[in-house]
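Tutorial, part two.
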Amino acid sequence: MPTLLAIAVGGALGALGRFGIDEAMNPWAPGPWPWSTLLANVLGAFAIGLVATSRRVEAGPGWLRPFLITGVLGGFTTVSALALQTGLLIDTGNTVTGVAYLVLTFVLGFLAVRLAVLISPGGRS
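Running the prediction step on this input gives:
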């Protein structure tokens, strides 16, 4: 499979997964906090830690890594939604919530990647 096609297909799949989480969580997500984006970004960070250290991915076809990392996980996670939702929280007077959401997303994302790398069989210690 050509790499650009793999990235495009992966991106579409990741975006659909992100949309699915948003649709599934919106009916019960309380308050202004963007729970679905936080979940997608933290899960995506964990997954990228696993994929980046996977020996199977490394040994697979050349298109597999870009398909998973740039395509699927790039489409699944979203900094643009994070920036928009943080701005909307701040604009509506929820400044502390907005800043907390921004910081928590990056901290949890970082910790999720570190955890995935540490528990991955191909991970680094």
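The helical segments are 3-25, 35-52, 55-59, 64-76, 79-91, 95-119. In part three we will examine how such features are distributed along the chain.
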